[in-house]
Amino acid sequence: MNTLNFNIYSYTNQGARDYNEDSCGCWQESERGVFVVADGLGGHGHGEVASELAVDYILSETQRDFDISDTALLGLMNSVNKAVIERQANDPTLKNMRTTIAVGMFDDGIFKYFNVGDSRIYYFKNGCLYAQSKDHSVPQMSVDLGEITPEEIRYSDDRSKLLKVIGDTENLSIKKIEPEIKIENGDAFLICSDGFWEYVFETEMEFDLIKSESAREWCEFMCKRLSRRVTGGNDNFTVVCGGWG
Hints:
Blueprint: E1 7-13, E2 22-29, E3 32-41, H1 46-64, H2 70-90, E4 98-107, E5 110-116, E6 120-125, E7 128-132, H3 138-144, E8 181-182, E9 188-192, H4 194-197, H5 202-210, H6 215-229, E10 237-243
Antiparallel strand pairs: 1-10, 2-3, 3-4, 4-5, 5-8, 6-7, 6-9, 9-10
């Protein structure tokens, strides 16, 4: 397969909405990096405030104190939640803003990730999906109970019903970080909002990765699929992807 030299690419689009409440960001230096996607909720631009605040907070805190231990990542997750809640308290016009978040980090050959809500992290080895974050949503709970398959989340009537988001409650009650992944040549990752994965299937992510020479090309292949599939009214969509070659 063609592999990616280490490079990253990000893209965000307002879709068919009047404004874009998604935010994304990243930083990378030497053998470490941080990649973030957030999907704001709340309408009238307030979701954009929450998502931008969350992304900026994650990037700033990790540049100040970089640590990918489970304890540190759980602390980071809860502190960004606290930062959004404090902003709500300081500005009553923002009291309804919320955001999902998905964060991928790597350090010295190890990749770690966490999410809150239904923004997702995908990790690929040898062109195949190796690990995927779980949504905090009603349909994900149905998957866990064996009532529907993971693929059926896209078509669930309850797909927009989230059980956890940043800024909703002071206690997220998330106690576990997924196992670390050892990075190998040819590995790739993709972090995206639900407006992206709703229209791009996991097998298509794999296929487009295999035929790509760069993170940008991979993203462009997938976005072409999305644009052909939407019929209007689609949500904002955002993706950050990259890999090692």
